[in-house]
Write a structure and sequence with these properties.
The chain is an alpha+beta fold and about 130 residues long. The chain has 3 helices and 5 strands. The structure holds zinc ion.
Length: about 130
């Protein structure tokens, strides 16, 4: 443990020295009349910092709009899917389509969805 402490201190000091060197360079550039380079670099650094933050918020907003949490209509297993996409239930493997915030069954081409209809014997006789 004791051996690590001076190393950490040294690292921190070299970090400060690095920033001091950067600052001195900026000040020198500004003094020479190349302030626009400093401004440009600062703007670039600002963009580099701000862009991921904005991107993260946009991504989260997008996720909130497009993530759909619903139950599988076949086995009632609750999971999340993306809006306007087709996915498969991780529990029963049923192909599902995400529409308007709900999971709907996909009727695959060639499959006929048969609905059982009760037909009374008397109806058949007529
Ligand atoms: Zn399912």
């Amino acid at each position: 443990m004791n051996q690590d402490t001076p190393k950490l201190l040294q690292f921190n000091l070299s970090g400060v020295g690095c920033w001091l060197a950067v600052l001195t360079t900026f000040m020198l550039l500004g003094a020479v009349g190349l302030g626009w380079i400093v401004n440009g670099l600062l703007i670039l650094v600002g963009i580099a910092i701000v862009t991921p933050v904005i991107g993260w918020f946009v991504f989260r907003w997008w996720l909130k709009r497009n993530l759909v949490e619903d139950k599988c209509p076949v086995c009632a297993y609750e999971f999340t899917g993306f809006n306007q996409t087709e996915c498969q239930c991780p529990n029963c493997g049923e192909s599902l389509k995400v529409e308007q915030g709900h999971f709907n069954r996909v009727t695959l081409p060639g499959t006929i969805d048969v609905e059982a209809v009760e037909v009374s014997a008397r109806q058949l006789e007529d």
